[in-house]
Amino acid sequence: MAFTLNVNGAPHVIEPGEGEEDIPLLYVLRDHLRLNGAKYGCGVGQCGACTVLRDGAPVRSCLVPAASLQGREVTTLEGLRAPEGTLHALQKAFLAEQAGQCAYCIPGMILSAAGLLRQKRSPTEADIRTALDANLCRCGSHNRIVRAVQRAAAELAE
Ligand code: FES
Ligand code: FES
Q1: Is the pLDDT confidence value at 1 over 90?
Q2: Where does the sequence pass through the membrane (predicted)?
Q3: Theoretical Cys-Cys bridge with 108: which of 42, 48, 78, 99, CB 3.0 to 4.6 Å?
Q4: Is 65 in the pocket of ligand 1 (CB under 6 A)?
Q5: Is the pTM of this model over 0.85?
Q6: Residues framing ligand 2 (Cβ under 6 A)
Q7: For domain 89-157, which CATH number applies: 3.30.450.20, 3.40.50.620, 1.10.150.120, 3.40.50.800?
């Protein structure tokens, strides 16, 4: 049955195929809406590569049935930019700190950090490490990622 999904401020009518009634949000974002920011890593909620925001809080889009999100607001990496295209402070900071090596984990890291900064404008390093603890980075970029979040928090606090 068709349902409406609000993504990045716009409503989308989604018509799942036969047998896809419980289709996870990640597949709807990537395959139906062509929003490829959220990545498929493990598919079972263990890596964080697929993280997006649901009403401002990070969720694993590989685990959340898309149809359960009617009336909620989903934000993906693509939706963090300002409407005229200006990058979000986090996106700029991750580039400035060269936080990504392969960058596969970076969209999930940025969305998890965005959720943190919505709750806490001036997080400590420990806050950042805790918020990103469940987002895995196989390249070992953690320290650069933490520095990027600190840089973004400082910019947003100005
Ligand atoms: S792909 Fe969703 S947590 Fe790994
Ligand atoms: S930069 Fe490669 S997985 Fe994090």
Answers
A1: no
A2: none
A3: 48
A4: no
A5: yes
A6: 100-105, 137-139, 141
A7: 1.10.150.120
